Amino acid sequence: MDAAFSAEQGEIRRTLREVITKRCGPDEVKAAVRTPAGYDAALWAALAEQLGLPGLALPDTYGGVGCTPAELALGCEELGRALAPSPLFATAVLAAPLILALGTDEQRAELLPRIAAGELTATLAVPGAGLATALGLVGDNTGDWAGGGRAGGVQARLSEGGWRLYGQAEQVLDGHSAGLLVVAAHAGGFARSRTLLFLVREGAAGMVRARQTALDETRTQARVELRDVEAELLGDDQVVGQDVGQGDGQGVGQGDGQGDQQGGDRVDVPAALAAVGDVAATVVAAEAVGAADRVMERTVEYVKQREQFGRAIGSFQAVKHRLADVYVQVQAARSAAYYAAWAAGAEAAGFGGQGAERAGGLALAQGLDALRTAASEAVQLHGGIGFTWEHEAHLYFKRASSDELLFGPVHRLRARAAERAELFEEGVRQEAAVPHAAAELGEAV
């Protein structure tokens, strides 16, 4: 692993920091989140047209730059420093990779160039409040989180006119303004249960979207209601057709393995969501590191100026110790985020061997911890002004709390990482063996 950044990566960071510093101060952020879209359209146009940020990790075949998740994480770290509201995360991190991985050639050719150019924004809509579950961050995502049976979640029905969706999705990031929704829906009922992804265009009949009041205004959320909405399957109809029941046209997955033999692996939705989830966790971790670093810088500046008992409070040993602890935590989180970004890029490129594991969940847990600690210390060390709701320190504090609600909690992120690494498998087997041995001993007696 080469830990040094390339000249191109350094240029991405430098250019973004210049743009964000000039156009995205605390006052601009507060003004942008109060617009109907929830972000500054002019800034988004600049990020897309001048810097090519939406297509940074997309292949050049579709108008992208062709970089790796590492460059995308570096870019989002700079956006995280200012908490710049934009549809970048929902569009380039959640929706675009799913279209690239599962879409047909026609769907990719139609949608990805528009996404790379910033003309089209998109997002991922999952039922209920299960975004972290759907992305495989806090548990196995092969269950019925999309809505088991024929009630609850989002249901998909195949009729003569095509696919129809009915249900509701909460906490859809940028869901009120996105031009395209990638909707996860349950199909097949109990007998042939399966989760599929569908494309729902802006203005579709029967779709109702409402922006929700969120703890963190810089990451807008919406409720999306789908009332018998026409949708387009993401992927090849012929591949899914191998698994569609011939009886009522609604069943998906016969259970005879024919779909897998004839290309069913192309619509492995849980695996695709888990891969996207790892990159998404890495990007959110990088955003958290950028935010934590910036709020720490502002706190250090403040304690050098604020005086108490005739001297700057930054000269007090207790304050120095507290900020030193924050610094160590932020640097550790940065190392974890950079490693996760490298590992994600290595896995996408198909090399790296044992080093190409998915480390996004652990990096996210570390980043959220660092941001929460840095923001909490900022609120306290700013004294009375830090406790006022209008102070910018609260923007960072609310971002830390909101991200943990959306993608965590932290202890479940770490538990999932431990489960995947099988850290406690030996202990589980030993605990299971104890009652079994006791039963055998009892029978012998």
From TrEMBL:
Keywords: FAD, Flavoprotein, Oxidoreductase
Residue span(s) of domain Acyl-CoA dehydrogenase/oxidase C-terminal: 282-420
Segments of skewed composition (Gly residues): 244-262
GO molecular function, one term: flavin adenine dinucleotide binding
Residues in Acyl-CoA dehydrogenase/oxidase N-terminal domain copies: 7-119
Family annotation (SUPFAM superfamilies): Acyl-CoA dehydrogenase C-terminal domain-like, Acyl-CoA dehydrogenase NM domain-like
UniProt-listed PANTHER family: ACYL-COA DEHYDROGENASE, ACYL-COA DEHYDROGENASE FADE28
Protein name in UniProt: Acyl-CoA dehydrogenase
Taxonomic placement: Bacteria, Bacillati, Actinomycetota, Actinomycetes, Kitasatosporales
